[in-house]
Amino acid sequence: MSYPYQIKTAEAYEAAYERSVKDPEGFWAEVASSFLWRKRWDSVLEWNFSDPDVKWFKGAKLNITANCIDRHLGTLGNKPAIIWEPNDPEEHHRLITYRDLYQKVNQFANVLKNNGVQKGDRVCIYMGMVPELAIAVLACARIGAIHSVIFGGFSAQSIADRLKDAHAQTVITCDGAFRGNKEIPLKNVIDDALVQCDFVNKVIVLTRTHTPVSMIKGRDVWWDDEIRKIETLGLHDCPAVEMDAEDPLFILYTSGSTGKPKGVVHTCGGYMVYATYSFVNVFQYQPGDVHFCTADIGWITGHSYIVYGPLCAGATTLMFEGVPTWPDAGRFWDIVDEYKVNILYTAPTAIRSLMGYGLGPVQAHDLSSLRVLGSVGEPINEEAWQWLHENIGKGKCPIVDTWWQTETGGIMISNMAGVTPAKPSYATLPLPGIQPILVDENGNEITGNDVSGNLCIKHPWPSMIRTTYGDHERCRTNYFATYPDLYFTGDGCYRDENGNYRITGRVDDVLNVSGHRIGTAEVENAINMHAGVIESAVVGYPHDIKGQGIYAFVIFTNTHGDENLSRQDIMQTVARIIGPIAKPDKIQFVSGLPKTRSGKIMRRILRKIAENEPGQIGDTSTLLDPAVVEEIINNRI
Ligand code: WTA
Q1: Is the pLDDT of residue 3 over 80?
Q2: What burial class does residue 233 get, using C-beta atoms within 10 Å of its C-beta: 0-12 exposed, 13-18 middle, 19+ buried?
Q3: 554 DSSP β-pair partners
Q4: Quick one: pLDDT at residue 535?
C-alpha cells in the first residue's frame, strides 16, 4: 500500500495549494493514486454547477471497504482498527483488529444479502455507538447498499420521514442504547416509526441493553440469530461488490431552511479520496496513532472521521458510547490516558461544558500522549480555545479548527496541525483543492482582505454533495441557484488581512445548537403540532454552552392555565416530533408576532429581542402592528 498523500511543511502546503488551483485534475489524480481501484478512471473530473452535475473519477471502479479493510490485512491485520469504550467504565472495552473487522463486516454483509438486501437498496441504521454500528455501515458499503444512518436522538416521526424519503425497506437497530445514566429504547422508537412505514420488510435488532422489546414475526430478526444462520450456511467471505466511483455510498439527512430535512447524497470514489486526504493532512496522522473523534456516527463527522477516513488510512479509531460528563467530567481524559490517544477531535460545546467543571477533573490526568487537538461544528470561541490549548494540550498541541458541512463530506477550511499556523476562532486556510470565495448579496465576488461576505466554493472537490435524494431540483435551488456557478454554503464569513477565514455563522434560518444543525422551520412545524398553538416563530440566541439556544415565540390559545405546564407540553411535542435536541430553551407566549403588511414574520426583530438587544431593533413603522413589539420586549424571558 502506498501511503496517502501528505503535506508536511508550510512550503509544501503553499506549493500544493497553488498546484491544486492551476491543475486541479493533475492534483486530484495524484491524491487518488494511493487508493485501491479495481479500474482506473477515464476522466478525473467533469462538471457544471448549473444542473449541478459533478463527476469525479468517472469510469473508475472500486469498493470503499476494500480500501478501509482488505488492503490493510497484510500489514496491519493484527492492529486494532476500532477501540470501543463502553458507556459504563466498569464494562469491558473491545478491541477489534483489522482482521476481526474484515471477518465481522463480511459476516454481516452476508447477513444483509441473506435478508434480501441488494446493491442500490437503502438501509436505515438507527443504533447507539456500538462497534456493530460501524460494522453495519461497512457491511452496507461492501454490498453496495446505500446506508442512511439516523442519529439515536431522533424521534419516531423523524425516522418515519427519513424512511419514507429514502424508501428504505431494511432497518438495523438495537434493543436500546446507553448514554450516561439514560437508556434509550431504540427498538420501541423504531416500532412507532414503522406504524407509518409498511414498506419496511426487515428489521435486524442487535442486543445491547437487554430492554424487553416486541418482535414482529417475519419482519423482525435478531442480529445474533442471523449471524448464526450465516455460520451454519458456511458463509465466510463476502466479495466486495464493484462500485462505480459515482455510485451513491450513503445518504445523510440534514436540516435546511425549509421544514423538511434534506437527504445529502455522497458517492463512493470522491468521498473516499477526500475523507482520507483530509484526515491524513488536517490531523497530520502518523502510522500508529490512536484517533479519538468524540462525535456520533449519526452525524457526518462520525461518518468521515470515525469510520471512513481513519480506516482508509489504516488508523486505530476510538469509538466512545457514552457522554463526556458521566460518570464524571473526567471521562474524556480517562479515555485519553487509558488508550494513549494521540489525536482528539471534539466539539466546542463539549469543551465549554467541561470547562464548567473546573480543572479538578483534568488535573489527575497525564494527557501526554496527545499530539493534535481538533474542533468542529461551530466556531470555537477564544476562551474555549485557550482552555483547550493550555489545560488539555499543555501548550504544545496544535489545535485544528475545522470548518465543513454534511454537504462537503470532509474538512474544507482548517489549519493543518503543526504545518500551517492556528489563529484562535479562525478556521484559517482552505485545504489544497478547495477554492473558497466571498460574495456580496448580488453574487459579486468580494476580493481583497479584511472583508466579509457569504461563503461560496467555486470549484468542485471530490466529496461534494451530488444530489439531495429523490429531488435533484432541491439540491440545485438550495446550493447552486443563489449565486450562479457557485456552491453556496449558507455561512457568513470574514477574511482577515492575511487571508485567514473566520466563519461568522449561518446566514439562513438554520440554527447551530451544540454543533447540530436545526432548521427553525422544522422546530416551528413541530411546535405548531401542539393543539393549543396558533402560530410560532423560532430564532437563535447566544447560549453559554450550546453556542446557540432555541428561543420560541408562541401564540397560544389558552394562556390562562399554568404557563409552565404548557411550556413543558410544547417541549414534549417537539421532542416527540423531532427529538430532544430540538427542544426550545425558552418559550415566550405572545399575543401576536411582528409581521410586515404582507404577512411575513420579521425574524430580525425577534432575533434582537431574543439576543436582548432591543436597542438595535430599528424601524418598526412598516409593521402591521408595531405595538406587539413593545409587548414582546416587556415580557422577554
Ligand atoms: C457550522 C458539521 C464555524 C457551519 C461538520 C456549517 C462551523 C455547519 C465549523 C455545518 C467551524 C461547522 N467553525 N462553523 N469549525 N464547523 N460549522 O452539516 O455553520 O452538521 O455550515 O457539519 O456547522 O454543520 P454540519
Answers
A1: no
A2: exposed
A3: 536, 589
A4: 94
- What mean pLDDT do residues 249-268 have? 93
Who's near 97: CB < 8 A, 6+ residues apart? Answer: 77, 78, 79, 80, 81
Evaluate: CB of 427 within 6 angstroms of ligand 1. yes
pLDDT for residue 626 = 84
Q: Which of 279, 491, 504, 507 to mutate to test the pocket of ligand 1 (most atoms within 8 A of CB)?
A: 491
From the CA of 517, how far away is ligand 1's center (Å)?
Answer: 8
Band (pLDDT 50/70/90 cuts) for residue 499 is very high
296 lines ligand 1 (CB under 6 A): no
Q: Would you state the pLDDT for residue 620?
A: 83
Instruction: Answer whether CATH 1.20.1250.20 is correct for domain 513-634.
Output: no
449 in Cβ contact with 496 (< 8 Å): yes
428 touches ligand 1 (CB under 6 Å)? no
Chain mean pLDDT for the chain = 96
Atom 14 of ligand 1, residue of closest alpha carbon: 378
**Which residue, by CA, sits nearest to atom 1 of ligand 1?**
378
CATH annotation of 98-241: 3.40.50.980
Distance, CA of 124 to CA of 156 (rounded, Å): 13
What pLDDT score does 619 carry? 82
443-461 pLDDT, tens digit per residue, is: 999 999 999 999 999 999 9
| Per-residue confidence (pLDDT) for residue 258, from 0 to 100 | 81
Return residue ranges of the chain for CATH 3.30.300.30.
513-634
- Whether pLDDT at 1 is above 50: no
Domain boundaries for CATH 3.40.50.980 within the chain: 98-241
Q: Is the dihedral of CA 113, 116, 119, 120 positive or negative?
A: negative
> Is the pLDDT assigned to residue 560 strictly greater than 70?
no
Å from CA of 633 to ligand 1 middle: 31
Apex 508 CA angle, 306 and 506, nearest 5: 50
Q: Is the CB of residue 401 below 6 angstroms from any atom belonging to ligand 1? A: yes
Map 394-423 to HEC letters: CCCCCEEEEECCHHHCCCCECCCCCCCCCE
Q: Is the CB of 301 under 6 A from ligand 1?
A: yes
pLDDT for the residue numbered 599: 84
Per the CB < 8 A criterion, the answer to whether 45 and 463 are in contact is no
Instruction: Output Rg (C-alpha) for the chain, integer angstroms.
Output: 24
Whether the CB of 262 sits within 6 Å of ligand 1: no
Indicate if ligand 1 lies below 6 Å from the C-beta of 404. yes
Mutate to test the pocket of ligand 1, among 294, 300, 403, 501 (most ligand atoms within 8 A of CB): 403
At 41-99, the pLDDT tens digits run 999 999 999 999 999 999 999 999 999 999 999 999 999 999 999 999 999 999 999 99
Q: Which atom of ligand 1 is found nearest the CA of 401?
A: 15
**Interatomic CA distance for residues 404 and 347, integer angstroms:** 13
Residue-level pLDDT at 2 = 56
> Mean pLDDT across the stretch 193-217?
98
Give the distance (Å) from ligand 1 centre to CA of residue 409: 11
How far is C-alpha 423 from the geometric centre of its chain's CA atoms? 24
